[in-house]
Design brief:
Layout: H1 3-6, H2 11-61, H3 70-77, H4 100-111, E1 143-147, E2 160-164, H5 171-181, E3 191-193, E4 212-214, E5 220-222, E6 233-236
Antiparallel strand pairs: 1-2, 2-6, 3-6, 4-5
Helix pairs in contact: 2-5
Length: 237
């Protein structure tokens, strides 16, 4: 047998292979971190953009988008408007008609030029494919309405106008978003985890129960160890 063929790899060759593998693994991990950071920024920017659009609409027209009746909204916006509400100054979501005003809100914001997209404005429950509501980076619907479907350190939460940012958010990204724009706790501040069942808007406004756990002294923390991939957070207005 040829001695050169039996010699195998040299230490230098093995070292080079290990360095290349290390670089490849590092590149993959860096790429994953960049994607995760981009999604957190997207959620933060979407939240800020929708919040600004909502209050700019109220400031300009002195009406609540979605609550404004379709006829008057269409005349003011100079476009045909399908969806509208009862002009009581609130986003209503009564059982059986819970999507009437929240869906109309997206249509009116878009036709006023405060939000990009085309939304039907009718009372059909939104899905990722039917253009009734904007989507988050994980292709899940966002909802703006008045509910108490969020975690609350003070006991029973009050009914508040809040923007549900949508399901499919990994728990570590939910925590990163909370740290970035709020206080880092899932049941205090402006950004909260949603309830896991019984939400006014059903599954769209719920997230997995395993996204939080007790951190001691009665405080809740994000349960990073559970590694949930289907959390949902909402921002209180």
């Amino acid at each position: 047998m040829d001695a050169r063929k039996a010699a195998g790899f040299t230490l230098i060759e093995i070292a080079i292979v290990l360095v290349v593998i290390g670089l490849l693994v590092g590149a993959v991990l860096t790429g994953q971190e960049l994607i995760a950071s981009a999604r957190v920024r997207n959620l933060a920017d979407s939240n800020a953009g929708i919040r600004s659009a909502y209050f700019a609409f109220v400031d300009r027209y002195r009406r609540v988008p979605g609550d404004w009746n379709a006829t008057e909204a269409g005349e003011a916006l100079g476009a045909a408007v399908n969806g509208g509400g009862n002009d009581n100054g609130l986003i209503d979501n009564d059982s059986g008609t819970e999507w009437v005003e929240p869906n109309a809100l997206w249509e009116q914001l878009a036709k006023a030029g405060f939000l990009q997209g085309e939304f039907a404005g009718d009372a059909v429950a939104p899905t990722p494919t039917n253009q009734r509501a904007p989507l988050n980076p994980f292709n899940r619907v966002m909802v703006l309405g008045r509910t108490d479907d969020y975690l609350h350190a003070g006991g029973t939460p009050p009914v508040r106008l809040n923007l549900v940012l949508g399901r499919g958010v990994p728990v570590d990204l939910a925590r990163e978003l909370d740290v970035k724009i709020d206080d880092g706790a899932p049941d205090t501040g402006a950004l909260r985890l949603t309830v896991s069942s019984g939400a006014t808007f059903g599954e769209a406004a719920e997230g997995e129960a395993g996204c939080s756990r007790s951190g001691g002294a009665g405080a809740l923390i994000y349960d990073i160890g559970a590694d949930s991939q289907d959390c949902n957070v909402t921002y209180l207005y």
